[in-house]
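Please describe the entry underneath.
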Amino acid sequence: MACKITARPNGPYLVEGEVEIYDPTGAKVDTSTRPRISLCRCGGSVTKPFCDGTHSKIGFAAAEAAVAQEKK
């Protein structure tokens, strides 16, 4: 399956399919035991880049829809 990313309402990015994640040092993060990954987008997770549910505790409000940017 191609990688599918879904922005959950006021929550994380849900990532499904094959994907590689690297930490700031360039080390690959092992995601082999996770069929789905939730990535934080509120900035409050203590397990970044993964979601830990903090968004619901801090009242994170996301944009309602993705906004495409024009190519220049």
Notes: The chain is about 5% helix and 20% strand.
